[in-house]
Amino acid sequence: MSQSVSEWGRKAADLYEADYARRYRQHDEELGHVEAYRAFCGWLDEVCGRFRNAVDVLDLGCGTGRYFAALRNVNTLVGLDASAAMLAEAANPIAAEKITAKTVQLVEGDALTAQFPAGSFDLVYSIGVLAEHTPLDARIVANVRGWLRPGGRFAFTTVHPDSASIPKTAGRAIGHAMLPFSPGPVRHWLHDRLTAGGQYADELLIVERLADGFTIESMTRLESEAHLHCLCVAVKAGEAGWAGRAG
Questions:
Q1: What is d(CA 208, CA 222) in angstroms, rounded to the nearest whole number?
Q2: What percent of the chain has a predicted confidence (pLDDT) above 90?
Q3: 22, 90, 191, 206 — which has fewest CB within 10 A?
Q4: pLDDT of 75-95, one tens digit each?
Q5: CA–CA distance from 206 to each of 94, 156, 219 (Å)?
Q6: Domains, the chain, ranges and CATH?
Q7: Do β-strands 228-236 and 148-159 pair in parallel, antiparallel, or remain unpaired?
């Protein structure tokens, strides 16, 4: 699959080179005792349970495939990642014996520029990628909307702008304090600055980004050892015939 690569895709590919990817995969073996990892897996399991029928799934930024085994009720699973080294590790993912997808395909590509036929998937999920390594912007939302079947779900995590992992600069502190008292245009500008245009994402930004073509089904927060996250599940609007696939 020949595809162009965005600036963010190049950064990810450069970061996750072979040695880093190998260490990342080795760390996967230790995740069984990590509360946040178990919570993410439980969340994915619950999202899969919202469908009545078996589904076709895209893992957007799959890395080493550390969440493949958390999925259930899956026909086909496609793992997309910008790093060839990470995909090489994903060929032997953690808990491989527990993966229930009938087929698994690994694709090297960029979430911003990847191409799949319209209506390829019932579920697109992404953990630890959007508003962390790749901005949650209009391009991502448009891509996912096109790839999903009507009634399909987009489940993803973001790093919340209030996360302790984000440096608390004086400018951020002042902007955060001013936000509730600012008039509309100024408030919007401040919020855009605090979220760095989608490099972080809170509930307000997520609702704004998904306003065209999605309905928010659930949104929660989760504190991991690294970040404060938003966990969102959104349903693509569509025809009743397709929506029957969803629970």
A1: 21
A2: 70
A3: 22
A4: 999 999 999 999 999 999 999
A5: 30, 10, 9
A6: 7-243 (3.40.50.150)
A7: antiparallel
